[in-house]
Structure formats: C-alpha cells, structure tokens
Amino acid sequence: MRKKFLAAALLVTTTLSAAASAKPTVVIGYENNGADPWMVSQAQGLFQKMLPANVELKFFDSGPAAMSALASNALQFMCGLGVPPFVAAVSQGVPLGIIYNQERYTSAAGLIVRPGSGIKTLADLRGKKIAIVEGSQSSFELATFLQQAHIPFDAVHQLNMSPPEMRVAWTTKSINAAIVWDPVFDALHSLGGVVLKTDADLPPDASSYNICIADTTWAKAHPALVTDFIRALNAGVTYTKTHREQAIALMAKQAGITESIAKTELAGYQIFSAKDQTKPSVLGTTKTVATSATTKTLENTGKVLLKIGRIDKLPPDAAAAVLPQYAAAVH
C-alpha cells in the first residue's frame, strides 16, 4: 500500500509540475507612479488570477532603466512607462507597441522649484541646476517648457538622476529644480517646493502619458494573453471608480504613501478605461489610430527628442506602434 501511495503521489506531483511548466512565463515590468489603478490590479493579484500563465512582476525606477530588459526580450509587458523612452526604443527598431494608455498626467507631474532658488518664472531657469531623468518624459517636458520661454535647451544645467535620487539632492540643496512625477513630485511639494508648471500645461496631442506596452512579436503570438492582461488592468480601473476609498487604501499601501497623499495623487491623473482606449482622444480604433491623441503625441515627442539630440531619427511609422485592437477585444 505504501508503495502504491508513493507512486500515486509522485504521479500527481509530476502532473502538476508538467502543467506548471506548460504555462508560458509572463514578466510584467512596472514603475511606481504613485496612486494609479495599476496599483489596485497589482495589490489584488489580478494579473496572476486572470492570466493563464506564470506571472512575474519586476519593478523599475524609471522608463529608461527598463529599456534594456525590453530590448533583450526579458519583458513581455511594461507599464507606467512614459512616452519618450518608448519613442527612443521604437526609433531604434525595437518591436514594441502601446496596448493601453493608462492615464494622462495633469497635476501629478511637472516642474517644481526649490524655495530660495531664485526661480519665479520659466525665464529664471537659465543657468540653474535642474534634475531630470534623461530620456524620460522629463526630457520632453523640459524641452517644451524651455521652448515656451524661448530658452535654449542647453542653457540650463541638467542633472540626470532617478526620482529617489532627486529627493536626496533636494534636501542637500544640490539642485534648484526638478521635473518629476508622483510620488516624488508630491514629496518635493510637501518639502516646500513651488510648482512652476504641471503636465496639464501640455496639450493632449503632445502630452505626458503613462502607457502599457508589449513586445509586438510576442503579442502577435499570444493575443489572448494580451487581452487577458488588459482585462486584469482594466479591472483595477473599474474597482477604482466603484470603490474609490478602498482603492485609495490599496494604492497607498502599494506605493508606500499615506492615503491622504494617494488621494491627492489620484486626482492628478486623467484615468482611461479599456472602453476609453478606442476613443480618438486615447488610442483610437484601427481605422482612426493615425490621428489619435496617442499617435500624435508619439510624433510630436519624437520631433522634440530629435531636436534636442536624444534620438538620431524619428520612428518610421508612429501609428504602427499604437495597437488598439487588444483593448477593443475586451469590451
């Protein structure tokens, strides 16, 4: 009997192991952008529950830091990514596509200046030390804001650092200003920072978005998994809209901030659902994608990055990098 029991147990273990190994491994990269619905999906384990795969989550402190992982096929998805690093990767021929536009920054990101820095207007930025994440959305924002003030891009001292490093540099007075996003943007504000510009000052067709992207080669081979991924992401959006207080509590815990701060940060986003994705103001449809706000933002961001020397050439076809069909299959 003992031998039969052991044989049966071994058979069950072997079967379970085979089933687990048969599942594809899906690695999802993400950034901590403060309180947004991604955090709800993550906190509730929705990606693991809704994707028939072995799901792994991997944190990155900025978009550029995730680019090498994406280029080496180590990630299938990346969320919380800004548009500039995506444009830079696509311009180099990396096969990536936007499958979900998570949100547009309004008051949750921007240009913030340190008290006593002598900066009261954009014109005062000339010659100042400004912290940015090179190649990220902050490069695009800085170039746009300086252009508005007719200040050359190289007329300011740009210091490349991660958002957590900006917080340290702020307290040591090593920088005069920073262009960053929540939760560090909000943290610097709480330390007395004066907000000079927010991303609400950027037009929708040249705006600051958090996007979810996928390896397009992998996505074509696994369309059902891409749709399941979007369904899990969208479930966090739905929960945020229907259970706001509970969602804020989950976001706060995941982002490592207080619920009060999470509430403020969430108010600084224009959140998009799966249904919103096919609107012209987001991804559009397969027929309207070429003129959608997301595609136009890719084009306009590329022009700025090319002008300031962040990329050597424009992406050949911005619309081809915007993929609304997966979100369209969710509803």
Automatic annotation (TrEMBL):
<dbReference type="GO" id="GO:0042918">
    <property type="term" value="P:alkanesulfonate transmembrane transport"/>
</dbReference>
<keyword id="KW-0732">Signal</keyword>
<dbReference type="InterPro" id="IPR001638">
    <property type="entry name" value="Solute-binding_3/MltF_N"/>
</dbReference>
<protein>
    <submittedName>
        <fullName>NitT/TauT family transport system substrate-binding protein/taurine transport system substrate-binding protein</fullName>
    </submittedName>
</protein>
<dbReference type="GO" id="GO:0042597">
    <property type="term" value="C:periplasmic space"/>
</dbReference>
<feature type="domain" description="Solute-binding protein family 3/N-terminal">
    <location>
        <begin position="25"/>
        <end position="252"/>
    </location>
</feature>
<dbReference type="Pfam" id="PF09084">
    <property type="entry name" value="NMT1"/>
</dbReference>
<comment type="similarity">
    <text>Belongs to the bacterial solute-binding protein SsuA/TauA family.</text>
</comment>
<dbReference type="InterPro" id="IPR015168">
    <property type="entry name" value="SsuA/THI5"/>
</dbReference>
<feature type="signal peptide">
    <location>
        <begin position="1"/>
        <end position="22"/>
    </location>
</feature>
